[in-house]
Amino acid sequence: METKLKSVANSTAWTNLQAHYEKVKGLQMRDLFAQDGERGEKMVLDAVGIYLDYSKHVVTDETLNLLLQLAKDCGLKKHIDAMFAGEKINITEKRAVLHTALRAPQTASIMVDGENVVTAVHAVLDKMSDFCERVRSGEWKGFSGKRIRNIVNVGIGGSDLGPVMAYEALRSYSDRNLNFRFVSNVDGTDFAEATRDLDAAETLFVISSKTFITLETMTNAHSARDWLLKTFSDEKAIARHFVAVSTNAEEVTKFGIDTANMFEFWDWVGGRYSMESAIGLSTMLAVGPDNFREMLNGFHEMDEHFRQAPFEKNLPVLMGLLTIWYNNFFQAQTVAVLPYEQYLKRFPAYLQQLTMESNGKHVTLDGAVVDYSTGPIFWGEPGTNGQHSFYQLIHQGTKLIPCDFIAFVEALNPLGRHHDLLMANVFAQTEALAFGKTAEQVKAEGTADWLVPHRTFEGNRPSNTLLLEKLTPSALGKLVALYEHSVFTQGAIWNIDSFDQWGVELGKVLAQRIVPELESKSEPDLKHDSSTNALIRRYRKLKTH
Ligand code: F6P
């Protein structure tokens, strides 16, 4: 009973939205645009260098007002202020959530447990800058005196997805004399393929792990150490070829990395919110300290926008609310993220951790089971590739899939007509999704009657279009922060802890239990279910190593 009373789904704002949904669910975008010739110019937000067109949605002014009311009633402003102030809003881990402090200017003051964390942030940034300059200039030498040419980031989850996404996104700003690799999977193939053509004497490993105890990362880090020592057979080489990024100095020392070569961050930085902390060391090595700081400035601009802009003009708030609209009222299960920019090819993968590890929760902050759907599934591929793969289902399938189209006015590699063709596809796709093609139109083209249903597009498929000028480090920072805060907005409304990740624990514990059962020489006494027992027995029987 108590759960029901407290549930946001029982609130006036939510029930008003539900009643409104029943009225507007049948509206057609075709009609909405016909009724208001300026809809496409009105339902846009142009802020901090991002133009968001949200006109191609099944929403009216009233929908937006009701969604904004929901945000207000849920105390979103209070939640935002609490996060920025360093309150321990990650309640299950009793931690502050202060990725915004990582991009705050040096003059800012943000107190956590009586300390201004901005001072520490900038001290680490300076240490990173100094190190990166030395590696990039060739001053930092490997053990045999050769300069570093290869950088291998070893990490997983937030200690990999952010670095690899940012490296790919900012490749055009990177030092092409340096070769970057990213190893994450405990599958030995990942390490083997990443290092097979590298000269150990020219290779630097960046071991990135917040905890420095993650099984995958530590296994890969030990393999990296063995690999290096095959060339040097002298432990002293480690200091020239390994640096660590972590919050755990004790484990870093245990591994054998001098803490002088450790770049610190803090427990108030969540793994999936860490790409602009020292976890971004590989990014800074690639693009240099100035570009890295420009990226931080982009993040900060979006932070300030999120903190200060009124909700109706607030990009992350609006995007978050639209996600709620489809997720909770239309019962859409997924969101497709479709960057029309090849350099953003890893952006959807990055967003999967950001969005789904954050909002894939089934209980509220009070521990009550939610009676509404939380985080949608995020997925996507860069355009135009997706068009020749899964767009068919988005256009004509039976599932409603809101899409985010992300595009840039300026090409980083202008080549003949390529960019106009790319952009034409962005605009065409959002147009086709929204307006489709009626049976009458298809018939009027002379299509045979039997074929008409197959060639008809219902339309009314919603999308955001995010248009930016150019993919710069600052633009990347803004985009990432936009999604971070949109996720925050959703989490605040669903009343969940968007900053813990207990759901990844059980599998880790069970794997640790199974490892000795796979490795033991004698037949183990298996006490799992019959399926798991049989799989383990079969593996043991057939394995050759
Ligand atoms: O998968 C769980 C998780 O804790 C993520 O949240 C995190 O990004 C990842 O593991 C890696 O953790 P660490 O940086 O401590 O190695």
Explain the overall architecture:
The protein has 545 residues and is α/β, with parallel strands linked by helices. The protein is 47% helix and 11% strand. The protein is built from 22 helices and 13 strands. The protein has helices spanning 2-6, 12-24, 29-35, 39-42, 61-73, 76-84, 117-137, 161-169, 188-195, 215-232, 238-241, 249-255, 281-308, 315-329, 347-359, 391-396, 418-435, 439-444, 452-455, 473-494, 505-519, 530-542; strands spanning 44-47, 50-53, 111-112, 115-116, 150-154, 179-183, 203-208, 242-246, 262-264, 334-340, 377-379, 403-408, 463-468. The strands form three sheets. Strands 1-2-13-12-10-11 form a six-stranded mixed sheet, sandwiched between helices. A hairpin with a 2-residue loop joins strand 1 and strand 2 (50-53). The longest helix has 28 residues, at 281-308. The protein is globular and about 75 Å long. The termini are far apart. The relative contact order is 0.13. The mean pLDDT is 97. Residues 156-159, 209-211, 214, 217, 271-272, 357, 501, 504 line the site of 6-O-phosphono-beta-D-fructofuranose (F6P).
List its traits:
alpha/beta; 22 helices; 13 strands; 545 residues; binds 6-O-phosphono-beta-D-fructofuranose; 5-stranded parallel β-sheet; 6-stranded mixed β-sheet
